[in-house]
Write a structure and sequence with these properties.
300 residues, alpha/beta, 9-stranded mixed β-sheet, 11 helices
Length: 300
């Protein structure tokens, strides 16, 4: 475990914190890695690491991560090659990114964690669980991307174009600088790797409690009932929840609802709506795999 001083380039970056989480740097395999962490996590808190999506940094995950930071030891890294972290030439396919996530947890001294991902972060988590099953407690997959439904590239671009006006306007201020920094060559290479990854097959093979959260207005994914139809073909550990009113970047657009679902999932509680939510945001349990834990009765 190591924490490195900031380089001159890093010191020139804006220093106004984007979050209530502590901003930190470490150095892993010769690469400077930026991450955020719960400032004062309880000593016995379960560890929860949030894994970002395609071309993005962890910044857009912060709204949800902040809401969970008092309940869990929360970590939000920018994986190598993304956001404020340094670049590595071998960080542009799904297995490499899963290894990078493992290296980050090793560096932080974390033996086992729950991983929460959005979009491309979901295949990274699935690969992590496939390769390192002893290092993951549970998986939370929010708007999982990749596979045949996002092929070819022109279809994915059309889906992203349809999604953009469905997201909060403030999302652009977070996402556009990350995409520009990531660059076109990296985008093309990673897109090929992402769409070739067998996400669905690996998802149904997972042997840990797994929560999948889908947005009812997400153009990058098939309809939730199609996913239910596929998931029902095998006895799985997967719980599928639909959040009406949300599109793709649920971690940014609906943090209260997502944090609520994650807490219930972590405590094996029944998925229920919070009556304080606006009428356009409602939760529905779409599928509960045969091997997913049954809901516990509410505590008195």
């Amino acid at each position: 475990m190591s924490t490195s001083p900031q380089t001159p380039k890093q010191r020139r970056l804006p220093r106004r914190p984007a979050s209530s989480l502590a901003e930190k740097w470490t150095r892993i395999d010769g690469v400077d890695v930026f991450y955020r962490e719960s400032p004062l996590p309880p000593a016995d808190a379960r560890v929860m690491a949030h894994i970002h999506g395609f071309g993005l940094s962890g910044r857009y995950l912060l709204p949800t991560a902040e809401r969970l930071a008092d309940d869990f030891h929360t970590l939000v890294p920018d994986l190598p090659g993304f956001g404020r972290s340094g670049r590595r030439r071998d960080m542009l396919d799904i297995p490499d990114l899963a290894h990078a996530a493992l290296g980050f947890l090793d560096d932080r001294g974390v033996e086992k964690a729950t991983l929460v991902g959005n979009s491309m972060g979901c295949p990274v988590i699935i690969e992590f669980a496939h390769r390192f099953p002893e290092r993951i407690d549970r998986a939370v997959l929010v708007s999982p991307a990749g596979g045949l439904y996002n092929q070819p590239l022109r279809r994915a671009i059309a889906q992203l174009s349809a999604d953009a006006p469905r997201e909060p306007r403030t999302m652009a201020r977070v996402a556009v600088p990350d995409y520009v920094r990531f660059g076109v060559p990296s985008t093309m290479r990673l897109f090929r790797a992402l769409t070739r990854y067998p996400s669905l097959e690996r998802l149904l093979e997972l042997r840990i409690p797994t929560l999948v959260v889908l947005g009812g207005r997400d153009p990058l994914l098939p309809h939730a009932h199609r996913i239910d139809e596929i998931a029902s073909q095998t006895d799985s550990h997967v719980l599928v929840v639909l959040l009406d009113g949300a599109a793709h970047a649920i971690n940014f657009s609906h943090p209260d609802q997502l944090a609520h679902v994650i807490r219930m999932f972590m405590d094996d509680q029944a998925i229920e709506n919070d009556p304080r939510w606006p009428g356009h945001a409602r939760l529905y349990e779409v599928h509960r795999g045969k091997h997913h834990p049954s809901p516990k009765p509410p505590a008195n």
